[in-house]
């Protein structure tokens, strides 16, 4: 999977979100500064760390009421594991001299993807992608009960 468009398409498929602005996805996937052609225009891409900082902040805000849960869900170890589990490493744009995606790069890229999704689609899109990737916690799930059945009435 070498083409930039293929990487964007794969990422969109994995996170179940189609970017309105695909440039945001490319920026999120870029693990190094590069000059690429996107949608027929030459773009100078920065390392995805800026988008990752934003993604970290908005995803933390999404889970802001639950400090311990936030750390277990959004800690770098979990983000890296989630990224590899969903094969997002196949989407990362690596420096030509780099042969593998490190845990740190994977965690940063997942944060950057979350940031790009939020910039592109807002809170609802972010929540949907976080749920798709399993970046949630059972305590945050809404559960409804039929108390009449429980109480036998």
From TrEMBL:
Domain of life where this protein originates: Eukaryota
Domain RNase III: 67-122
Molecular function, one GO term: ribonuclease III activity
Database matches in SUPFAM superfamilies: RNase III domain-like
Listed InterPro entries: RNase_III_dom (IPR000999), RNase_III_sf (IPR036389)
Biological processes, Gene Ontology terms: RNA processing
Name assigned to this protein: RNase III domain-containing protein
Originating species: Bimuria novae-zelandiae CBS 107.79
